[in-house]
């Protein structure tokens, strides 16, 4: 996973923590990132959930 995939995880983390500022969605509890690399030879799907 490169810079784009890392940025996706950072965005999910900020959303779930309520720290996304103007980009914040309402009451997120689960986030999903889908990243392709190497002409789609590598696929990473990450699912994160907020702690209660």
In short:
This protein has 52 residues and is an alpha+beta fold. It is built from one helix and two strands. The protein has one domain (3-49).
How would you characterize this protein structure?
The chain is an alpha+beta fold. It has one domain (3-49). The protein has one helix and two strands. The chain has a two-stranded antiparallel sheet.
The fraction of residues in strands falls at 25-35%
Major sheet: arrangement of strands: 1-2
Distance between the termini: 28 Å
Number of separate helices: 1
Structural class: alpha+beta
Q: Number of DSSP strands?
A: 2
Keywords for this entry:
two-stranded antiparallel sheet; single chain; elongated
Record the SSE blueprint.
Layout: H1 3-17, E1 30-37, E2 42-49
Antiparallel strand pairs: 1-2
